[in-house]
Amino acid sequence: MIDVDPTAAAVAAAVADAHRSEWAFVLAATVRVTCDLDLAEECVQDAYARALDTWGTAGIPARPGAWLTTVARRRALDLLRRDATARRALPLLVTDPALAPRPDAAADELAGPELAGPEPGGSVPVQLADPAVADDRLRLVFTCCHPALATDAQVALSLRLLCGLSTAEVARAFLVSEAAMAARITRAKKKIAAARIPYRVPPRAELPARVDAVLTVVHLMFSTGYAAPTGEELMRDDLAERSLDLARMLRVLLPGHGEAAGLLALILLTDARRGARVDEAGRLVLLADQDRARWDPAKINEGVALVREALGQGAPGRFAVMAAIAAVHDEAPRFGDTDWPQIVGLYDLLMRRWPSPVVALNRAVAVGFADGPAEGLAALDALAASPELAGYGYLSASRAEFLRGLGRTGEARLAYEEALLLTGNAVERGFLAARLDQLGS
User: Fold this and answer.
1) Mean pLDDT of successive 10-residue stretches along the chain, which has 441 residues
2) Among 5, 14, 360, 431, fewest CB within 10 Å belongs to which?
3) What is the pLDDT of residue 94?
4) How far, in Å, CA of 412 to CA of 425, rounded?
5) Cβ–Cβ under 8 Å, residues 377 and 404
6) How many CB atoms lie within 10 A of CB 119?
7) Cα 303 to the chain's mean position, in Å?
8) Its pTM surpasses 0.85
9) Long-range interactions of 43-52: CB distance < 8 A, separation 24+
10) For residues 98 and 75, what is the distance between their CA atoms, to the nearest angstrom?
């Protein structure tokens, strides 16, 4: 059903919703026509701009994503044909005909999905994936998260191409200037072209390792949004929400994949607490003090169901185990009802699956709640020599909390002061400063 003659506000809302939910699909489908990321972006942006003008008079289409895809791909085909005409008219300017996209192949793409695009040699070579996992968005995910790219470039491209964030928005996420981020994204795109990174889902033999890289990028994006390293707000809601969108997309594109289900569960169960993490004044509220009535029960129920599914897929991976830990927290009616011995056991399993200093730190904190602050402090002090944690403010803050619980006020003060020096987020700094004031009183 088409919404005929909608208001300007309704059109703007529909375009915004289509941008959030359909951007990756529209861009991925257009890349199959252009074999060029920049050209595809230009055509998709043009399609969204046309939607703002057209939907107000023609009505909001019943399938906005299909409308946008058709407009973007037709624009791409038109530009490719113009380019081919120019190349024929100015043959001396063409140094390598193999690098020119073939508009006839683009027409084939519009005619039917079973036909391949241009042969390798364009800026983003196209190959058809195994039909069992074929999806344009999945191809785009694997292109953004190719191991030839640095991790920060993978995250930046994912935000830019999969989430549709502007360069300025991506720059804010990385706390760099827009010019610096534009240069970083351009370098990443050039590397994709120069390295002939194929626009395809990897062969099945490479899939397990490559899927893990994709899931890692989405998890890193969520972690950065959920606890912003710097800034005036505790969270970057935009990053957290984009990460949830991507996790849902991967869940659809990788059905039956335990770790994809585990990552979505982890994000849902963690994000369910978002509304209780700060009070009305914007101050940090510890998990022990949060009003659990403000947690999102729908996200918790969905996350718990996904945990059961992920754990039923054989030996659980790291995301499934982390999701199980989050589920134990979320299912406890009160903080005092938390099954800390079970959480310690899950961290032991996680250390075997994914040994890391941060996992060891979280396990030590769990030990402190399971066996008392003295045991937790001993576990934390055993990590003090880890070079990876030397500048990690959460280690100092955790030590300070246990020292405070043991009544060792002087040592706790030093630990809080050290944590303050290592913490860049204003909300977390405010919490640590308040703890210091409480020690003084």
Assistant:
1) 69 88 87 86 93 90 92 92 72 41 40 27 31 62 83 84 81 78 89 78 73 86 85 86 87 88 98 96 95 98 97 90 98 97 98 92 97 97 89 94 96 96 93 93 60
2) 5
3) 39
4) 20
5) no
6) 13
7) 17
8) no
9) 43/72, 43/73, 43/75, 43/76, 43/79, 44/68, 44/72, 46/71, 46/72, 46/75, 47/71, 47/72, 47/75, 48/15, 48/18, 48/19, 51/11, 51/14, 51/15, 51/18, 52/11, 52/12, 52/15
10) 22
316, 257 contact by CB (below 8 A): no
Quick one: tokens of 210? 């490559």
Measure Cα distances from 417 to 66, 160, 434 in Å: 56, 38, 11
Domain segments of the chain: what residues? 8-117, 136-236, 255-338, 343-441
DSSP 1-53: --B-S--HHHHHHHHHHHHHHHHHHHHHHHHHHHS-HHHHHHHHHHHHHHHHH
Token pair in block for residue 436: 């210091």
Asked whether 327 and 307 are in contact (CB, 8 A), the reply is yes
CATH topology for 343-441 is 1.25.40
Q: Would you state the structure tokens that stand for residue 68, as one six-digit string?
A: 């946008």
Q: Give the model's pLDDT for residue 103.
A: 42
CA distance 275 to 253: 29
- pLDDT number for residue 441: 60
**Cβ contact 101:126 at 8 Å:** no
Residue 345 tokens read as 């056991």
N-term to C-term CA, the chain: 65
| H helix runs in 201-285, sequence order | 207-226, 237-253, 258-271
